[in-house]
Amino acid sequence: MSSNPVINWVALTPILIVLGAAVIGVLVEAFVPERYRRNTQLVVSFLAVAGAFVAVIAQWKKVGDLGYAVVLKLNEQAAVGTLFEDRLAIVFQAIVLPCALFALLIAADRTATGEGAFAASAATQPGSSEEREANRLGAEQTEVFPLMLFSIAGMLAFAMSGDFLTMFISLEVLSLPLYVLCATARRRRALSQEAALKYFLLGAFSSAFFLMGVALLYGFSGGFNLWNRAYLEASGQELLLIAGTTLVLIGLLFKVGAVPFHSWVPDAYQGAPTPVTGFMAAGTKIAVFAAVLRLLGGADNSNTIGWSAVSLYETLKPVLWIIVIATILVGTVLGIVQRDIKRMLAYSAISHAGFLLIGVTAFFGANAAVVSATLRGQMSEVGFAANIVPIAFYLLSYGLASVGAFGVITLVRDRDEAGNILGEATAIDHWKGLGKTNPVLAVCMTVFLLSFAGIPLTSGFIGKFVVFAAGVSGGQTVLVVFAVLASAATAFFYFRVILNMFFRQPDPATSVTVASEGYAGVAIIACAALTIVLGILPGPVLGLLS
Q: How many CA atoms, within 13 angstroms, populate the side-chain half-sphere of residue 231?
């Protein structure tokens, strides 16, 4: 006889806060007068993300003491559709939320003339009389804030996913708002809508791969959960297990832009509103890598290492190596030839996905080694401290730099021959002399680019160092050597931007920085400061994550 389900509502607090705020944001759009709508949305959004972050921190010590908690139980067992509150979930939620808060600040910013990054009315046809009328009336698309909150809630749930059902639902809650947000750019709207359509269609394909993989794994194990005993007892050579795991990984690797599932990244990054690009670059990577780690290593619990059979690791290892090498190579080589700064940062994001996958591969191998030695009770400490913490720190440093860099791009604008200010100056040549015309923005952008390049005294250097060290410890030395060489090559396209900003004369006829309400400035300076602090004093954060 089945009993009533037991739900750990406290563990769901961060998700409930953000989801509740998103629903309130929808009601605000329906009932609050237009002149008060934007400010109301800003207050609701900022308070929700800040409150969710406080809730995560409040749970930090409890999770550290208890190890893990199952959110949904039935008959004293984890029910289908459950979530895990464990160290993996708490750490990645604590990384997502600050990046999301800074992205919200940048999305909320407007120029001194009241122009934001989003279309006045996204439903109007580009170039139509309706669009011109909406711009003339000063209309604002404030629906972007609840959409961002829904996506943030999906990211938080993704990090906690306890089985394939919650993983898929979280993936779609994360992705669907992003498809819409990509189509809402104020300028170059046709390009924005094209980017959104490509992202949506390819995202649908990735979801199909994911679901097909889940179907095969269900056929193999008879369940949706990640801790099924069929995985623990598998030899790793079963066709359904290999094919299912591979297809699920394809669905997840699409979201982080790993090669050959990367074709959407440059177009989506270029066409989306720039604040959305930064939000997508940081938040999606953080959430999806949390799910990948859970898939390949299980939850923070010695009985959930379903994916770590040695033979399965050995079977998938060549495929993972090919993906890592191809991702780093494509991101590096194609990034060098880009002339658009958003596309350059898109290929940079692809190469960073390859660097992170080295840590993931090491984590998978470390878990396999622990299982082979029948030391499952040691897995959580070995896997977490040696592999998950470096990946988490790397994602934190990358997320801050990405949000900050795209925030800077929102404030650097093109000019036409009549001197009218246009959209973002995405052509790298138009960044000439920024260090002379706006040294604060130029210095902040330099900090972010140096962090991407992995230059010492930035958080990016520490992130690459700890991930590469984990890779060497996990037997991925060849991949690490290749990544170090590629990282040196990527420095070329970062330093090209720095060279334009500080060692070229400005051309006021082509670009200018714009004054804004200041939200973006706060986010940019905060991201730059944290990037430097984490590069100089990484110890406290690394210790806290451990």
A: 28
Give the H/E segment covering residue 415: strand 412-415
Nearest Cα residue to 479 out of 358, 353, 382, 381: 358
What lies within 8 Å, CB to CB, of 382 at 6+ separation is: 366, 370
Rounded Cα gap, residues 488 and 480, in angstroms: 12
129 Cβ neighbours under 8 A, 6+ residues apart:
none
70 sits in which H/E element: strand 68-70
Which residue, 47, 523, 521, 92, is CA-closest to 299? 92
Residue 85 has pLDDT above 90, yes or no: no
Reply yes or no on whether the pLDDT at 299 is more than 50.
Answer: no
What is the spatial distance between Cα 172 and Cα 161, in angstroms, rounded to a whole number?
A: 13
Tell me how far the alpha carbon of residue 455 is from its chain's centroid.
22
The whole-number pLDDT of residue 236 equals: 62
- Out of 75-79, 192-196, 291-295, give the one with best mean pLDDT: 192-196
Mapped onto helix, strand or coil, the DSSP state of residue 185 is strand
Percent of the chain with pLDDT over 90: 57
**Would you say 323 and 258 are in contact if contact means Cβ atoms under 8 Å apart?**
yes
H-run or E-run covering 130:
helix 129-137
Q: Residue 70 and residue 247: Cα distance in Å, rounded?
A: 27
* pLDDT one-digit tens code per residue, 66-76: 666 677 766 66
Torsions phi, psi for 511 (to 5 deg): -150, 160
CA–CA dist 382, 337 (Å, integer): 41
DSSP 34-47: HHHHHHHHHHHHHH
Estimate the crossing angle of helix 389-411 against helix 459-473, to 10 degrees: 150
Task: State the residue for tokens 């790993």.
Answer: 258
Q: Which of 27, 199, 34 is nearest to 120 (CA)?
A: 34
Within 13 Å of residue 75, how many CA atoms lie on the same side as its CB?
4
User: Rounded distance, CA 90 to CA 83, Å?
Assistant: 12
